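Hey, resending since the last one bounced:
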Amino acid sequence: MKGLLLNFAAVLAAAGLSGGCSTTQPATRSQADYRLPVPQAEAERAYLGLPATTSNFRPEDIHCEILVIDCFDMYCHVCQTGAKHVNELYELTQRAGLGNRIKFIGLGVGDTPLEVATYKEKLRVPFPLFPDRRALLAKHFGQLKLPNLLVLRNQAGRLELLHRSSGVLLSPAKLLSQIQADLTQIAPHHWTDTAQAAQPTCEAGSAACQNTGLLQPAGASSSAKSR
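The structure tokens again:
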């Protein structure tokens, strides 16, 4: 089991995700700071289990057994379309009484704080979102196409990658069932979903990657965003 456990940076570097609106290249540990700013909202800070005195944190600091990371870009139409399915997965988790064991965060790859806030508000995302403007964390996912959902297990402060899901999530209920199964196993296993893996993603330069007008931060245009 020890061999399966990696720290967060190593897990993401090894993940080699295929799939996003913007494609990032893997980075070495010296190239990035893996810490995120603590949410200003007290409810979100409490949800993540972070002390009020902390100003930043690592994903593995979140108090949970399973961490689900939703990687998106506000200007990615596929991400916008799929957000409701990730929201559904979160709600199903809460209704199943697993909210303390399974936690969610979102990572806005290439997005500013304003763009992330717009995405969260307009798409009614119920869990904390964080900007990754320079893709410092995303670079450790390997080459990443969006949207992409990562499921990781927290083992004593180390994150083990269990599953990754690109494109619009087909079945939130099915994914939750698999996560629940892993919660009951001493040594959870990696799994894949062939149908999910075949879902279209937001390819760089494709028409599907362009904002269709669903979201627009104040004073900004999709064409103005630098890629």
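Residues 2-209 form a domain with the Glutaredoxin fold (CATH 3.40.30.10).

Sorry for the duplicate.
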